[in-house]
Structures are given as structure tokens and as C-alpha cells.
Amino acid sequence: MEKIKNNRVFYHILAITIVMIWGVTFVNSKVLLNAGMRPEEIFLIRFLLAYVCILFISPRKLFADTWKDELRMLILGVTGGSVYFLAENMAVKISYVNNVSFIVCTAPLYTTIMAILFLKNVRATRYIVIGSALALMGMAMVIFNGHFVFHLSPLGDSLALTAALCWGVYSLLIKGISERYGSIFITRKVFFYGILTILPVFIIHPWSFPIASFLEPKILGNLMFLGLVASFICFELWSLCINKLGALSVSNYVYLNPISTMLASTIFLNEPTSLIAIMGSAMILSGVYLANKK
Fold first, then answer.
1. Mutual orientation of helices 183-198 and 67-77 as an angle, nearest 10°?
2. Exposed e or buried b per residue across 139-164, where buried means at least 16 C-beta atoms within 10 angstroms of its C-beta
3. Buried b (16+ CB within 10 A) or exposed e, 17-43
4. Mean pLDDT across the chain, nearest whole number?
5. How far is CA 83 from CA 9, 121, 163, 199, in A?
6. Is it the case that residue 278 has pLDDT exceeding 80?
7. Which of 58, 53, 94 is nearest to 226 (CA)?
8. In terms of pLDDT, which residue wins out, 70 or 115?
9. Do 184 and 54 touch, CB atoms closer than 8 A?
10. CA distances (Å), origin 194, targets 46, 93, 200
11. 3-state secondary structure the chain
12. Distance from C-alpha of 46 to C-alpha of 54, rounded to nearest angstrom
């Protein structure tokens, strides 16, 4: 029993680490966007790097056991890959960053609601309700930093909501599929279908970023981090964590995302950190603890 408990603690720590890494990627993407790359270009290179790497360790099995499972893999590639990242980055360009950050990071809330509606073994306990509400309020404090002005931008906010809903679907769907397939195989399929479903975008907007610019240390370094660390390693380990802990518990850690974004922005972009943001971080940590409390 003690060994099982310790293993669960390890996967909780692993899930927290992954989310903190994903929080830093907002800074990496911002650097690349400022350098002239478009959202779909960043995503394509990011997933191509990850896909090439995972081919070396993935089993030679090409397809899932049934066409229904293969369809689920396609949906995972869309909800956790192409549509999610494209909607999120397009929303940043159209809407206010605060709006987008807040809406996208509410993904665990939608995961919780969908889990309660569609999974028989999930109930809306007081810990889940109070913890989610506390984390949500803390997240607002960190993102808006005391300036609670929510500017309406229908198209941009709708795209951000689409991204959040996509991640909710991804988190729930991958739980069931991870019980029948290994995390490496699932992650490879997510990368493949993510790449495949982003390609039609380039028919409308052909590639424009200069290939020679990839040799610049700033461009290469950020792309390598996004492709190898945030995608190749983190997506595979995230699938493993969901398999071990459940979609609901793991998804709640996404509330921690703004904390690492705030820390990375302070360190790398010299953005100031306020007392309100620190208090919000404490509320997020408390809320996540309550939401995951048995």
C-alpha cells in the first residue's frame, strides 16, 4: 500500500512539473511571434520536431486496433494539437492577452463538468467545487494582476473558449484510450494527426518565415525547447500521468499554469510581480490541493 501511495505522489509531482513547463512556453511562443513566425508555423515545426524524435522510440505498429480507436486518435490530434494551439495563438493576436490567458486556463473547469456529466465514477464533491472555485479566483488575480477589466472581443474570446474546450475533451478522451495503448504510441499518433490537420491552413496562408532565420540562436533555441521538451517529453509523460491518476486530478493542475508563466515573465521578460499576483498564486495552490483531496 505504501509503495502504491508513493508512486501516486511521484505522478502528482510529475504532472505539476509538466504544467509548470507548459506555463513557460507562453514566453517561448511570444519570442517567436515577435520574431515574425505565424502561430501555425510555430506549431508545425514544434510538432515535426517532436514527431521525428518519437519515431526512434515508438513501436512499429502503425494503426490502432479498431477504426473507432483510430478515430479517437484523430480527435486527440485535433483537440490536443492543431485546433487547440491554432485557436489559442490566433486568439492572442485578435483579443486581449488577459482575456485569452484567463479563458484558456479555465480548461480544468470544463474537464470537471464533462467528467461529472459523462463519467459514472465522478461526483461533484465539495472539495472539487470549493477547490475549483478557489483556484479560478486565484488564477484571475494572477492573470489580471489587480486590473479586473474584461474587454469584450467576441471572435478572440470565442477562439480562446474553443481552445479551453478542446483541452477538456482531450483530457477526458485520452484517459480511456490510455488504458488500451501505451503512452508512446498515443503521443506519436497525436503528433501525426496534429501535423496532418494543420496542413490545410498553409493552403490559405502559405509559409512565409525565412528558413535561414532558423539558424539564429534565439529562434532555434526556443523551437527546440517547444518541440523536444514541451511536446516530445511532456505530452508523453502527461498521457502517463492521466493513466495513473485520472483525467480529473491531472487536469486540475492546469490551474498552476499562470504561476510558471508569471515567474518566467519576471525572469526572462523583466515583467514586475505584484503582491496581488503572489496572493493569487497561493489561492491557486490551495484550490488545487482541495480539488485533488480525496
1. 60
2. bbbbbbbeeeeeeebeebbebbbbbb
3. ebbbbbbbbbbbbbbbbeeebbbbbbb
4. 79
5. 32, 29, 7, 11
6. no
7. 53
8. 70
9. yes
10. 11, 21, 11
11. CHHHHHHHHHHHHHHHHHHHHHHHHHHHHHHHHHCCCCHHHHHHHHHHHHHHHHHCCCCCCCCCCCHHHHHHHHHHHHHHHHHHHHHHHHHHHHCCHHHHHHHHCCHHHHHHHHHHHHCCCCCCCHHHHHHHHHHHHHHHHHHHCCCCCCCCCHHHHHHHHHHHHHHHHHHHHHHHHCCCCCHHHHHHHHHHHHHHHHCCHHHHCCCCCCHHHHHCHHHHHHHHHHHHHHHHHHHHHHHHHHHHHCHHHHHHHHHHHHHHHHHHHHHHCCCCCCHHHHHHHHHHHHHHHHHCCC
12. 13
Cell of 266: 519576471
Name the residue type at position 118.
F
From CA 161, how far away is CA 159, in angstroms rounded? Answer: 5
Torsion angle of the four alpha carbons 73, 18, 172, 64, in this order, in degrees rounded to the nearest 10: 20
Query: Which grid coordinates are listed for 166?
Result: 478542446
User: What value does the CA radius of gyration of the chain take, rounded to a whole number of Å?
Assistant: 19
241 C-beta neighbours (distance < 10 Å), count: 26
Provide the 10 A C-beta neighbour count for residue 225: 18
Whole-angstrom distance, CA of residue 115 vs CA of residue 56: 35
Separation CA 283–CA 289 (nearest Å): 10
The answer to whether residue 116 scores a pLDDT higher than 50 is: yes
Output the pLDDT for position 251.
Answer: 75
- Residues constituting the chain: 294
State the cell numbers at 196.
496532418
Of 162, 179, 245, 192, the C-alpha closest to 76 is 192
Cell numbers given for 51: 514527431
Q: How far apart are CA 178 and CA 183, in angstroms?
A: 7
